[in-house]
Amino acid sequence: MKFPCRLDKFISHLAQIPRSKAKAAIKQKKVMVNEHVITAFDHAIVQTDLVLLNGKPLTYLGKRYYMLNKPVGYVCANIDELHPTVFDLLDEPNMNDFHVAGRLDIDTTGLVLITNDGDWSHKITSPKHNKFKTYLVETQEPLTETALEQLRQGVQLHNEKDLTRPAMAELLASYSLRLSISEGKYHQVKRMLAAVDNKVVELHREKIANIELDSALSSGEYRQLTAAEIIL
Ligand code: URA
Questions:
Q1: In CATH, 62-131+213-232 is 3.30.420.10
Q2: How do residues 144-198 score in pLDDT, each as one tens digit?
Q3: What is the pLDDT of residues 108-141, one digit of tens each?
Q4: H/E element holding 164?
Q5: Does 188 contact ligand 1 (Cβ within 6 A)?
Q6: Backbone phi, psi, residue 156, to 5°
Q7: The CATH number of 5-58 is which of 3.10.290.10, 2.60.120.590, 3.40.50.970, 1.10.760.10?
Q8: Which of 68, 72, 188 to mutate for ligand 1's pocket (most ligand atoms within 8 Å of CB)?
Q9: Residue extent(s) of CATH 3.10.290.10 domains in the chain
Q10: Separation of 134 CA from ligand 1 center, angstroms?
Q11: Ligand 1 atom 2: residue of nearest CA
Q12: Helices (H), the chain
């Protein structure tokens, strides 16, 4: 939510009611701003205003940032008709303008960042900002040093114009590697492994930029980011 914000929009958003109902409440003089009844729908609200609807305060909770340890089977979407979403795991008020900063596939586990700060998530997801995302990858076929070197240098993905950007790839075991990439193309890690004639069988995100998945979070648990983590 951006401030200043129209009164009808503010009420609709925080009371989670349609804009038409917010307007009706304003018209019926059920809304007070800083102790005055306000009847203009477009009255400009700033973050420090005290807005009452039917005598009850509507409080904007500001920008919020969470990390979640995503389990398999959850989708990174606000609504999904078939599957539970990562938002089902968050028990927080007023989550309707939140989004995932860098989605994971339904079968991928690990670090997911959720926020209502669009500028911040843009810094995470835009390739322009060059933020690395680190994945633990389990593969179907044994990994070779040649394949790892190809992943480091850049590989050609189907239907992409350019090679993938230089990546960091560390062999952990015959079927397992740690891969850090600075882009977030659709199914990128799976497609990169396919490009070197292999297949991902398990994928887990450990880190995004400076933010590491907290090892105290079990699968499905979340916490707020610390002030230091929010600084990208
Ligand atoms: N790359 C993928 O292929 N899948 C993910 O979930 C994340 C990165």
A1: no
A2: 999 999 999 999 998 899 999 999 999 999 999 999 999 999 999 999 999 999 9
A3: 999 999 999 999 999 999 989 999 999 999 999 9
A4: none
A5: yes
A6: -90, 120
A7: 3.10.290.10
A8: 188
A9: 5-58
A10: 11
A11: 187
A12: 7-15, 19-27, 118-125, 145-153, 188-195, 227-230
